[in-house]
Amino acid sequence: MTTEATPLKGNNNKRNNMIVVEMIHVKKSFGENQVLCDINLVINKGENLVILGKSGTGKSVLIKCIVGLDILDDGKLVILGKNISELNDKELMVIRRKIGFLFQSGALYDSMTVRENLEFPLRRQLITIPKEKMDMLIKEALEDVGLAETIDLSPSELSGGMRKRLGLARTLILKPEIMLYDEPTTGLDPITSKEISSLILEVQKKYNTSSIIITHDINCAKLTADRIIVLKDGICAAEGSYSDLKNSTDAWIQAFFE
Ligand SMILES: Nc1ncnc2c1ncn2[C@@H]1O[C@H](COP(=O)(O)OP(=O)(O)OP(=O)(O)O)[C@@H](O)[C@H]1O
Ligand SMILES: [Mg+2]
Questions:
Q1: What are the structural domains of the chain?
Q2: Higher pLDDT residue, 10 or 95?
C-alpha cells in the first residue's frame, strides 16, 4: 500500500484520467489537534472515490477543505485545474458553484415545502431565473431522485431515506461537476441504503460527476467505489479497489470489512 495517490490506481483505468481535484501535502489542525497531517490524493473525472476511516479521523474535515468550509493550514488544493490559494473571492465562488455537498445532516428547511427547498439554492445562486425554467429544473431534480410526487409536502413529512434523496436533489439542481457525499446512507435501513447507493451511481452516469463518498457502510463502498482511500493518523494510509482492500492482509484494513 502507498501513501501517494496516483491517478491510475484501482479499476479506474477506464476513465480519461483528467484530474478534477488534487490535494498535495495538505495539513489541517484545530489547536493542538493535528487532524490532516499530509494528505495526498486525486479525484479523476467521472470517478467515485470512497473514503473510509474510523470516526474522528478527519474525513468530514477533508471534504470541508475542498468545499471551502475549512481552510487548509498548509499544502496545495487544485480544483478543476485552479490552485485555490491563488484565486480571488469571485474566482473561488465560480469554482465552489461547481461543487455539490450532501451534508451528513441533509440540511433541509422544514418550514418550507419540498418545492421551496429546491427553489432556495437556485435563487441564491442565479440572480434571475424565469419561473418556467425554475419549475423545469425542480421537476427534473425531483424526478432524478424519485420524489416527483412530494413537491408540495414539507420535508418533515418525508422518511429518512426520502430526506436524503431530497438533500441530493437540492444539490443536483445546480448541476455540480463534483459531488461530495458525507455519509449518505448513515441511519438508513439496508434496503434504503442500497437505493441511495444506486442513486449515487445514477447521478455519476447521468451527469458524469466526479465524487467523494465518505461512508462507514461497506456495502455502499462496494456498490459505488471506483477506488477507495483509507484515512488513518492524518494520512491516506491505504488505497485500492474494493477487492484490493478486502483481500488485504493488514488487520486494520480487514477491520473495515468485518
Ligand atoms: N471546527 C472544528 N473545530 C475544532 N475541531 C474540529 C472542528 N472540526 C473538526 N474538528 C475535529 O477534527 C477531528 C476530525 O473530525 P471529522 O468531523 O473530520 O471526523 P470524521 O472522520 O468525519 O468522523 P465521523 O466518522 O465521526 O463523522 C475531530 O477530532 C474533531 O473534533
Ligand atoms: Mg464525519
A1: 12-98+176-257 (3.40.50.300)
A2: 95
Above 50 in pLDDT, residue 244? yes
* Residue 130, pLDDT above cutoff 70: yes
For residue 55, give the ligand nearest its CA: 1
Q: Which of 35, 73, 217 has most ligand 1 atoms within 8 Å of CB, for mutation? A: 35
CA 37 to chain CA mean position, Å: 21
Measured by CA distance, the residue closest to atom 3 of ligand 1 is: 30
Residue 161 CB neighbours (<10 A): 19
Cα–Cα distance, 74 to 89 (Å, whole number): 19
Judge whether 198 and 210 are in contact, CB under 8 Å: no
Query: Is the CB of 60 inside a 6 Å radius of any atom of ligand 1?
Result: yes
Q: Residue 25: is its pLDDT beyond 70?
A: yes
Hey, what amino acid is at 152?
D
List phi, psi (to 5°) of 90. Answer: -65, -45
**57 in ligand 1 pocket by Cβ < 6 Å?**
yes
> How far apart are the C-alpha atoms of 51 and 92, rounded to whole Å?
25
pLDDT at residue 51 greater than cutoff 70? yes
- Measuring CA to CA, which residue among 209, 199, 213 is closest to residue 165? 199
pLDDT of amino acid 161: 86
- Whether residue 25 contacts residue 76, with contact meaning beta carbons closer than 8 Å, is answered with yes
Question: Which residue, by CA, sits nearest to atom 5 of ligand 1?
Answer: 30
Which three cell numbers mark 223? Answer: 456498490
Per-residue pLDDT reduced to its tens digit, 73-91: 999 999 999 999 999 999 9
180 pocket-lining for ligand 1 (C-beta < 6 Å):
no
pTM given for the model? 0.89
